[in-house]
Amino acid sequence: MEAVDNAVVATDTSAPSQVEPSAPAATPEAATDRRSVIEAAIKAKSSPDTHAPAAPAPKAEAAPAPAPEAKPADTRARDDMGRFKALPKSWKKELAPKYEALDPEVQAEIYRREDDVFKGIEQYKSKAHMAQEFEAAIQPYLPTMTQLGFNPIAAVKALMQADHTLRFGTPQQKQSALMDIIQTYGVQYDPNNPPAQADPTTVELRTVKQELAQLREAQEQTFLTPYLNAVNQFRSDPAHEHYDMLENHILSLISTGAARDLQDAYDQAEWAHPELRTQKLARQQAQEREAEAARVAAAKAAAVQVRGAPSQVIPAQINPQDRRAVIKAAVAGLQR
């Protein structure tokens, strides 16, 4: 047994000790058992330790954070504290002191939110305008749609579908759509008896009428151009500042012959307007007062000159007792 123990211990050294020759010889079963024990010991020594802790797995590198999007430079005016100078459009002016006291970041957020609101409003403006135009276009036909039980959207959709079929459909689809229209609207149509062709004379006469109408329109335009220019010049005169307000009355007076010319029609229309008549009377009274004041001032000046120039000869045809005539003669003498 010592030999076996020595053999097992020898597996841990680089130079295993030999078995002493004096050891008793082992039986075949014992040799087999020893060999098994030695092989098991050698295998246990050379095999890796299954109970040793495993090496930690390398950590995966974290993905780099995405770079923040570059924001456009803010060019709005700010004060020394970094606050916006202008009050937001939706704020009342009375709140300006409170707004100016806000933190710059809060002010910037208010501006951003207000810009978002205005952008949203602008997006809906065009759609609202289109809806208004659509409503105005179908307004004359709403009674018919109501009578037939159609809503405007469905009616327009049906019309556009019919138009698309008649334009781009196959010959069979066009024929079918045309027959549906004929039946729906009660058109009298006999495919075996098509409508007669238009008389060439009638077509030519219609063409001549159209050309005459165009020629008459051109002549009228040429004839009216000088008058239109005169009216525009009259309207632009500052003395006729109320022309646009009185235009309908002015045209009525001219068309009925109640006015001699454009100026007479303007004066009559202005006088017939209560508010403008009051203003005109006030101006006339003011002008008369100014003229009277000027006349009195001139008479006083003339009287002083007459008293200071006794050597001036009064014309014989003037009555010396007529004070006004004497003053006028004196003034005329000074002007000569």
Written overview of the protein:
This protein is mainly α. It folds into 5 domains: 2-46, no CATH class; 93-139; 150-185; 200-283, no CATH class; 284-335, no CATH class. It is built from 12 helices and no strands. It has helices at 2-10, 28-46, 96-100, 104-138, 142-148, 152-168, 171-185, 200-236, 243-255, 262-272, 274-308, 323-335. The longest helix has 37 residues, at 200-236. Residues 1-28 have low confidence and may be disordered.
Shape: flat
Q: In percent, how helical is the residue content?
A: 55-70%
How many extended strands?
Answer: 0
How many domains is the backbone divided into? 5
Topology (elements, then pairings):
Blueprint: H1 2-10, H2 28-46, H3 96-100, H4 104-138, H5 142-148, H6 152-168, H7 171-185, H8 200-236, H9 243-255, H10 262-272, H11 274-308, H12 323-335
Please give a handful of descriptors for the protein shown.
336 residues, mainly alpha, 5 domains, 12 helices, 64% helix, flat
Please summarize what this structure is.
Helices cover 64% and strands 0% of the residues.
